[in-house]
Amino acid sequence: MRRTVCDLHAELVRYNLVAWTAGNVSGRIPGEDLFVIKPSGVSYDELTPENMVVCDLDGNLVEGEHSPSSDTAAHAYVYRNMPEVGGVVHTHSTYASAWAARGEAIPCVLTAMADEFGGEIPVGPFALIGDDSIGQGIVETLKGHRSKAVLMQNHGVFSIGTDARDAVKAAVMCEDVARTVHVARQLGEPLPIPQDDIDRLYDRYQNVYGQRSPR
Ligand SMILES: [Zn+2]
């Protein structure tokens, strides 16, 4: 899991979702009340499986020589309150954060959005780092919502998934559609997709598309 989470950080760099040391990936350790997360303030080039840190679901350091990411409390809150979640990602990716800065949800105007997010990508509350308010905002917004990503107002993106890789995919797709819908907006008013078509696309993509493999 340390290697998996370490390697997934390279995807954030590859897809241009992060600057300097901002952004982080975590993955729940199956069958344990533990997760692996990025160490705080270590540059992406210096991440190794060995310097990843292990925390419990209260965000306390369990194993590792570095202190955990400053966003650890938010990740821990999500794992405590959403048992189905196996991975969490946080970025300040440019286009998605631009939507967050305006406090505007990304409307579902692309079939790729219907596929991946099942509708709009919602906005979560403005919340300051330091206590559970970011985690609470993420959980309140995403619980019972199809979207695997939330735009935390004036901040950036948190995404969730069945595992860490799934959460990274949601972060990548969130930035991709944020950019496309932004560009569409510059040219005019994007056309909405009827709700029953969104439902059909979402159902097909989630249940039929791709290679079936036992999980
Ligand atoms: Zn942040």
TrEMBL record:
E.C. no: 5.1.3.4
Gene3D superfamilies to which the protein is assigned, alphabetical: Class II aldolase/adducin N-terminal domain
Residues that span the membrane, as ranges: none
Domain Class II aldolase/adducin N-terminal span(s) in chain numbering: 3-182
Pfam families registered for this protein in UniProt: Aldolase_II
Catalytic activity of the protein: L-ribulose 5-phosphate = D-xylulose 5-phosphate
InterPro entries, alphabetized: Aldolase_class_II_sugar_metab, Aldolase_II/adducin_N, Aldolase_II/adducin_N_sf
Keywords in alphabetical order: Metal-binding, Zinc
Top enzyme category: isomerase
Necessary cofactors: Zn(2+)
Entry superkingdom: Bacteria
SUPFAM superfamilies xrefs: AraD/HMP-PK domain-like (SSF53639)
Family: Belongs to the aldolase class II family. AraD/FucA subfamily.
PANTHER family in the record: FUCULOSE PHOSPHATE ALDOLASE, L-RIBULOSE-5-PHOSPHATE 4-EPIMERASE SGBE
Name of the protein in question: L-ribulose-5-phosphate 4-epimerase
